[in-house]
Design brief:
heterodimer; A: about 250 residues; alpha+beta; three-stranded mixed β-sheet; two-stranded antiparallel sheet; 8 helices; about 15% strand; elongated; B: about 625 residues; Formate dehydrogenase/DMSO reductase fold; 2 strands; about 0% strand; binds iron/sulfur cluster
Chain lengths: ~250, ~625
């Protein structure tokens, strides 16, 4: 069962209730304007934020919970991994702090405790503890206008298309997150383009982990292949030298 | 002071600075000494120390492969140097990792938590295994100096070939998987560097430059200790590097051509300039210098070619792992402290290298006749080429002093402000938006209230007053809302004027409108306010539970008074005055109001707008 969040930008009034709920449920401390923040409101203490766009457009940013998450495929210790609900969660006790996940994530979501001597990676976990017990995430529960809702991914995609078709021209004819990077569990419908949610244009709809898959599959063959080739060479060289010596011996 | 003394003093200074920085980093966190940020999670510690360090350590496996697998005995004399350089390269990469990882004490965790899809998982396994292999490969050298562990030494020497094979297999895997690391960032890495062939490019370039690093190392020792370099074998070794560099160039450019990226090289962007510099350093200069036989056999030609290739490869790795991996909007430049650590690690590695050169027999190259310049290499035995005894006491004292001084200097240089503020940016305080008086219109209906900022500052305690409203624990730096102090204006109230409701001069409502006729007339059984005054409640408060509470002052203002006044003024043109400010604001104006405010409030508005938007405009100018 793949759970998802659908955010309808046209319904969001920018009240920050989701942000406040997220902070409360995760017990995050107050934020300060750290030098190491990006200007999108996300931080180690803010797992979701509202990005304000012209004409009273408020766009909630959070981890997209990719179906084939680049962060999880990058993490060397599987500290980030996907649950059966399609949620990408973080187990801090495994993390070694390499921050490869931050490099890999196409949406620039994971943030870091730069000011702490014992730092961890910080990102939305779709309130896994709540979802596991059949509840909905704090942010969707808090939204007063149902701009952001929680449900099964299939149903939410159907709902999104229904809304788009219902009033033609109201939305851009696209469910953001349906196909990008192989599909994400956090979906958006909107009347403005949401390309800015990833700060670099993501080419195509191919899941990023697929780019490394071929190379990773070649690992063991390479290992033994190199060994075999080297062994073969060694044997050839030895043999040639032996023959040479024998020749010299018979001549001398 | 001879050149060795100067060189060593510089090295110890850099190490001292690096250690001071590293200690600060462990106490106060990465943010205290580095410019790493959410948009640039990897800086020069990864981009200049870890990734290039490993690439440049490739000499170990390449040279041992040539010697032990391909049986080219003429290079045998460089085997120990090559292994030592590789070992130190990996060791310094590992040291850099310890400083730059968030949780370095857990660096071994890939051993227990497996993740086969991660290139970094593979890299970390390979680093750990190869460090072990290199240690075993090198161990016989120091063991030679003592009679202990003779059995171990014999065992290691006997199975050397196994270690060499393991080293080659692990290295090939791991040099290439360093390239795999960056396959996952097609959208971030600049197209001139991104290529599906990155793993192969990484491997081939490491194989090419590896032997050149060894040659450079040999040349440096020769220079430092006034030894005679054997140019013939060195040039032969360089020729091997030359061939692989050509292959690397072909792969790189064919890759670019196939993907149609060739025009980008000359598009004039700064990236293309960096690319051209990189290509010149790693391909053009070495290929020219090593390709021409005469230059290859000259010491200067060899040295320049190797140096250029080493710098070029370092630049290539730094570009891929950092410079060209940046996202728009990140303005990363390393702090001086990051540079301290990067340099200090290299310096530390060189110190260990020199120590090994001086104390162990890793060397069988002839000395220049020391009698010509006796002061430069006084402690080497002419016959055995071995360093005679450890450095004198004066030397130890000297370098300890240098280290201690630079260590102290490092601490003195640490960024106090940054450590204290923990990376919090300083904000310049600005005047309240719109001057001293704000027009607050919470629900955007152009009716609002005036907020006198100056008066709040005065009454809340001047300078100390700022934080009472402007604290930043609400997302995106929201200030306290009015309701946080003036809460009584917002809370529902249970004031109920019973007499007024019943009085013929008031609402004049019969008893049983509210009270059930047969029941005792009590508050508990009476109708609730909302049963009659449903229009007093704002839409989103429609679900307030049944209580005896009347709406708050704010809700009453917004819905009861204002809306009603407005509607009636519109419905009945003779009652326009109903919607004008003086309709309610009859009393004397509070004396804190500024003159223009008073005017605004006492002047009958031209239409039925209660708080003319003119106020707003005046104030925001
Ligand atoms: S958006 Fe980024 S952090 Fe979230 S699941 Fe996808 S790759 Fe991971
Ligand atoms: S920083 Fe932690 S969670 Fe991220 S990739 Fe490294 S080990 Fe995994
Ligand atoms: S799902 Fe939970 S963790 Fe994620 S943004 Fe919403 S409240 Fe925060």
């Amino acid at each position: 069962m793949s759970m998802a969040i659908l955010t309808d930008i046209t319904k969001c009034i920018g009240c920050f209730e989701c942000v406040a709920a997220c902070k409360t449920v995760n017990g995050h401390e107050a934020d300060k304007p750290y030098v190491f923040h990006i200007n999108d409101g996300l931080s180690a203490h803010n797992w979701t934020s509202i990005v304000q766009k012209p004409d009273k457009h408020f766009v909630r940013k959070q981890c997209r919970h990719c179906l084939d998450p680049a962060c999880a495929s990058a993490c060397p210790v599987a500290a980030l991994h996907q649950t059966s609900e399609g949620i990408v969660i973080y187990e801090s006790h495994k993390c070694i702090g390499c921050r490869y996940c931050m490099i890999a994530c196409p949406y620039g979501i994971p943030r870091y405790d730069w000011d702490k001597p014992v730092p961890y990676v910080q990102k939305c976990n779709m309130c896994y503890e709540l979802v596991k017990h059949g509840k909905q995430p704090a942010c969707t529960a808090a939204c007063p206008t149902q701009a952001t809702i929680f449900g099964e991914r299939k149903e939410l995609i159907a709902e999104a298309h229904r809304r788009i078709e219902e009033i033609p021209g109201k939305y851009i004819n696209k469910v953001f997150g349906e196909f990008e990077v192989g599909g994400t569990s956090v979906l958006y419908i909107s009347d403005i383009d949401l390309g800015f949610l990833s700060y670099v244009v993501i080419p195509g709809t191919k899941a990023l982990p697929k780019t490394t898959a071929t190379a990773m599959e070649a690992v063991l063959p390479t290992f033994f292949g190199v060994g075999a080739v080297m062994g073969g060479l060694h044997w050839l060289v030895r043999r040639r030298q032996k023959l040479q010596r024998e020749n010299e011996g018979s001549e001398g | 002071m001879n050149r060795l003394d100067v060189f060593k003093s510089v090295l110890w200074t850099l190490t001292g600075l690096a250690v001071a920085t590293a200690i600060t980093r462990f106490i106060f966190g990465l943010g205290a000494v580095s410019n790493l940020s959410d948009s640039t999670p990897w800086g020069i510690w990864k981009g200049l120390s870890v990734v290039p360090g490993i690439a440049l350590a490739a000499g170990g496996f390449v040279v041992t492969a040539v010697i032990y697998v391909l049986k080219r005995e003429e290079f045998h004399r460089y085997a120990k140097v090559a292994v030592l350089i590789a070992f130190l390269g990996y060791l310094s990469a590992a040291t850099a990792l310890v400083v730059e990882l968030g949780l370095p004490w857990l660096v071994w965790q890939p051993v227990i938590y497996w993740q086969f899809h991660s290139a970094l998982f593979e890299v970390s396994w390979c680093v750990m295994l190869y460090l072990g292999v290199l240690l075993l490969e090198f161990l016989p050298v120091p063991l030679e100096e003592t009679s202990w562990f003779a059995g171990l030494r014999r065992f290691l020497t006997k199975y050397k070939l196994v270690l060499v094979f393991l080293g080659i297999m692990i290295s090939c895997l791991h040099q290439s998987s360093l390239g795999t690391l960056f396959l996952i960032t097609p959208e971030k890495l600049h197209p001139l560097w991104y290529s599906a062939l990155l793993p192969i490019e990484f491997l081939v370039s490491a194989i090419a430059v590896g032997p050149l690093v060894v040659i450079l190392g040999v040349l440096v020792i020769c220079y430092m200790y006034r030894k005679e370099a054997d140019r013939k074998t060195l040039s032969k070794l360089a020729y091997l590097g030359f061939i692989v560099i050509v292959i690397y160039g072909v792969i790189r450019f064919v890759g670019l051509a196939v993907n149609g990226k060739l025009p980008m090289i000359f598009d004039g962007s700064w990236q293309s300039t960096v690319f051209l510099i990189e290509i010149a350093l790693v391909l053009v200069i070495p290929i020219v210098l090593l390709g021409i036989r005469k230059l290859r056999y000259s010491q200067a030609g060899l040295a320049i070619a190797c140096f250029s290739a080493v710098i070029g490869l370092g630049l290539n790795r730094a570009n891929i792992a950092g410079v060209m991996l940046q996202v728009p909007g990140s303005q990363y430049y390393p702090t001086i402290y990051e540079v301290f650590v990067s340099l200090g690690i290299v310096a530390g590695a060189i110190i260990v290298f020199l120590f090994c050169v001086e104390h162990f027999k890793i060397w069988d190259v002839k000395w220049k006749d020391p009698r010509e310049r006796p002061e430069y290499c006084p402690r080497f035995d002419l016959g055995s080429d071995v360093w005679l005894g450890s450095p004198g006491v004066t030397e130890r004292v000297k370098y300890s002093l240098v280290f201690a001084l630079s260590f102290a200097l490092g601490f003195a240089l640490m960024p106090q402000d940054r450590i204290e503020s923990k990376g919090v940016e300083e904000i310049t305080v600005q005047k309240a938006r719109g001057g001293d008086t704000l027009f607050i219109d919470g629900n955007y209906d152009t009716f609002g209230t005036l907020f006198d900022h100056a008066r709040h500052v005065d009454s809340l305690g001047q300078k100390e007053s700022c934080v009472k409203c402007h604290h930043m624990n609400v997302p995106l730096d929201k200030e306290s809302g009015c309701w946080e102090c003036h809460s009584s204006m917002y809370t529902a109230t249970d004031i109920f004027r019973h007499d007024w409701h019943a009085s013929p001069n008031g609402a004049d409502i019969a008893c049983d409108v509210c009270h059930e006729p047969q029941q005792e007339r009590q508050k508990a059984s009476a109708k609730k306010c909302r049963d009659c005054h449903i229009d007093l409640y704002a839409d989103n408060t429609a679900d307030i539970p049944d209580t005896y509470l009347a709406v708050s002052y704010v809700d009453a203002m917004h819905i009861l008074c204002v809306n009603c006044h407005r509607e009636r003024a519109v419905a009945d043109t003779t009652r326009v005055a109903l919607a004008q400010c003086p309709a309610c604001h009859t009393g004397p104006q509070p004396d804190y109001l500024k003159a223009e405010m008073r005017d605004e409030l006492s002047r009958p508005a031209p239409n039925h707008v209660m708080m003319p938007p003119a106020v707003l405009q005046v104030k925001e100018e």
